[in-house]
Amino acid sequence: MTADGPRRPRDGQAAANVPRHPPDRGRPAGEARRLPLFVYGTLMPGLRNHAWFLRGRTVAEVPARLAGAVLYEGPGYPHAVAAPHGEVHGVLVTLDPARYDALLAGLDELEGCVPGDPGNLFDRVEREVVPGTGGTARAWVYLASDRVARRLRVTGRPVPGGVWRG
User: Fold this and answer.
1) How far, in Å, CA of 63 to CA of 120, rounded?
2) What residue ranges do the domains of the chain occupy?
3) pLDDT tens across 81-130, in order?
4) Class of domain 37-157
């Protein structure tokens, strides 16, 4: 780990039962669906990784909530863990379409996420979120990998109300 964010660990296993990067029949293999991104930690507006990765590279940023997850404290950044009860508050970010693929690749690297790698720190998954503007939206979310989530469920400290303040 570094003060600037996670680095991909080399041990552990990813969950076999959580869908990762669902196929999109209209895109070439390996190219991600162009969904907005739900952020809940250092990528939120006003925080350090937003300044480095997202400022000036988005077309919309709207408060939103993710149901079915619990937020845990981490070493300078939080972890969202899939859970039947719980809610995480964050921001739904629409990336600049002209920079989408490069931004998503950079964010995957920041989050220690390599599709299919059992050593991931986070896995990028597609989930439904509720924007503050109403309705629902499908979005990419970086959830703690199964290996990390198992540890957090036993020894982690939940973030009160699912709102991380940095």
Assistant:
1) 27
2) 37-157
3) 999 999 999 999 999 999 999 999 999 999 999 988 989 999 999 999 99
4) alpha beta
